[in-house]
Amino acid sequence: QVQLVESGGGLVQAGGSLRLSCAVSGRTFASNAMGWFRRAPGKEREFVAAITRSGASAYYADYADSVKGRFAISGDNAKNTVYLQMNSLKPEDTAVYYCAARRGLGITHTMADYEYWGQGTQVTVSS
Prior knowledge:
The structure is a single chain. The protein has about 130 residues and is mainly beta. Strands 2, 4, 5, 6, 9, 10 and 11 form a seven-stranded mixed sheet that branches.
C-alpha cells in the first residue's frame, strides 16, 4: 500500500517561496508517476505538476500553464521524496496542495488517474 505524507505548507507573502515535500512509502517514487494537485477555496481540485522517470536516471516533468516558470517538481531517490519548489508565489496560489501517485509511469493531468493521495498541506499567500 502506497502512503503519501505532505509537509512544508504555510503562510507566505506574495513574491515569496515555499518548498513542499511528499514522503513516499510502500513503493519507490521512481516506479510511479507522481503529481501535485491543489484545491483553492470554492474551486475544484486542479493539476499543478507531475514527474515521471524517462530513463535510467532521467526524469520528465510537466506543469500547469499557471505555474510554469515559477514552480519546479523534483525527486530524491535516496529519501523517496518528491518536492514542489514554489517561487514568486501569488495570492491565487492559495490552496490545499495534494501529492498523488499513480501506478505506472505515464503522466496525466486527470485526478481520477491517480490511485494514491496524501492528506494535503495548506499554502496561504498573502497580498
